[in-house]
Amino acid sequence: MIEVSKVHYDVIAITEKKVQLNITQAVEGLGWEEEEDELAMKITFELYNAKYNGSRLSSLIKIGCVVAIKAYWGSGKGIVAMGNVTECERSTTKADEVFNVVAYDNLYSMQRSQDNIYFAAGKGTKSALTEVFKNWGITLSSYSGPDASHAKILYKNSYLGDVVRGILDEAKKKGGGKAIVRSTKNKVSIVAVGGNKDIYHFEGNNSVSSKHKVSIANLVTRLKIVSSEKTDGLPKVEAVKNGKTEYGIFQRIVNHASSDNLSEAQETAQDMLDENGKPKETATVQAPDTPPVRKGDMVHLAVGALNGFYIVKSVQHDADSGKMTMQVEKADTTAKKKTETKKKTYKVGDVVNFHGGKHYISSYPGAKGYNVSAGRAKITIANGSGKAHPWHLVYENWSETHVYGWVDDGSFD
Fold first, then answer.
1. Which of 100, 222, 249, 305 could anchor a disulfide with 89, C-beta 3.0 to 4.6 Å?
2. Strands, DSSP E only, in 173-249?
3. CA dist., res. 413 & res. 406, Å (int)
4. CB burial class (10 A; 0-12, 13-18, 19+) of residue 104?
5. Helices marked H in 57-192 — which ranges?
6. Is the Cβ–Cβ distance between 268 and 238 less than 8 Å?
7. What was the pLDDT predicted at 344?
8. pLDDT at 274 (0 to 100)
9. What value does the mean pLDDT take over residues 352-380?
10. How far is CA 104 from the centre of its chain?
11. Average pLDDT over residues 88-112
12. What is the pTM of this model?
């Protein structure tokens, strides 16, 4: 429980000599925020250039120094924001000298950087993201996001924030659920959206206000599935899926390669309709600051037109005013989430993504197996009489995978 009257904060700085300073009394305008389309949390405050043990704070707190915000809320306490100083702006008057300080958490370098990323078909979401972060010296401390099997992943000269969001979005389209990246006390995690244990309730009164918006600006009401094969003419239309066309025709195209299952393209189209096929409701809520609330959390609202569970898309905490501003969207708590463990039906002739691992010389228990890499393959025999390894796969591209044998249930999708 949050006791609003007891909410207060300490601001801690760690100098380049690893000296820990409590600079709370020299700080004004303290705030921190997590924006929807940014990886890193941002911290801002004004720092009065006071003396500390005979030295000005400006000589102690420099670019790269760690700053942390410790919050207290009656029933609990903890570090709610931590980052490294990236900007100091000096402002001097006759009366005093103030520094405007900006800091970001340890996802900032990835947010600002571009890279080229490639994974062959069959790479899992968790494995791909773990490798992306590892290449930037970051070890994921926990992972509660989706773990779908992907088609080929290729990003050229792309910002890493776009890469991470793109991989997670693709996994969501495959039924894996929505997830985001967050850093907590310099430990990076992939967390399921709405997966927080403590759900805070806000209701309309003199201290809580809201704005509510309904829009069809990004509405999709028709998906046209077309062949991606090269042609001198118009691509062949394979299928059309209609949604809420009573709002008008807002059409998107889904490309379908002849080597893919049409059912997979139709599933992708349906996912797009599920996500963007109805008017989008968004809202802004201003409430007493609740320090533990973060982007991706689920909250419960009973404010104006808002009634029910909502997901925090972005949040700005303002310590001076004791308020926070949340951008929220309605949480889907009734829809049954598809998962990667959902049973699918496969048949001879289907082209699938083999995850990599062993293929066996027969379908019977005890058959000798050999490791092969992941890649696309065709099902040539189903329900092998030996039962232990019931599917026979043959590679589609030898340079991608050498699979040519019997494999287990769950080894492809």
1. 100
2. 179-184, 187-192, 201-203, 209-215, 222-227, 237-242
3. 15
4. buried
5. 57-60, 108-112, 125-134, 160-173
6. no
7. 65
8. 84
9. 90
10. 18
11. 88
12. 0.73
DSSP strand pairing (237-242 vs 222-227): antiparallel
pLDDT, position 334: 52
Residue 401: count of CB within 10 angstroms of its CB:
23
- Outline where 135-261 has alpha helix (H): 160-173
- What tokens were used for 255? 């490309």
Mean pLDDT estimate for the chain: 89
Helix pair 160-173, 125-134: axis angle to 10 deg? 170
- Are 141 and 187 in contact by the 8 Å Cβ rule? The answer is yes
Vertex 53 angle, CA 48 and 56, to 5°: 35
| Nearest-angstrom CA–CA distance, 352 and 379 | 7
pLDDT digits (tens, 9 = 90+) for 275-330: 889 898 788 999 999 999 999 999 999 988 888 999 999 999 999 999 999 999 98
The reported pLDDT for the residue numbered 257 is 67
Q: How far is CA 3 from CA 6, 124, 188, 289, 343, in A?
A: 5, 43, 29, 10, 47
Contacts of 351 (CB under 8 A, 6+ apart): 259, 260, 261, 376, 377, 378, 379, 396
β-pair partners for 360: 369, 406
pLDDT at 43 over 90: yes
* C-alpha pair distances (Å), 283 with each of 213, 227, 328: 6, 39, 5
Spell out the residues 6+ positions from residue 84 whose beta carbon is closer than 8 angstroms to its own: 64, 65, 66, 67, 103, 104, 105, 106, 108
Beta bridge partners, 406, equal 360, 392
DSSP annotation string for 334-397: SSPPP-TTS-----TT-EEEE-SEEEESSSSTT--EEEE--EEEEEEE-S-TT-SS-EEEEES-
Average pLDDT over residues 84-91: 91
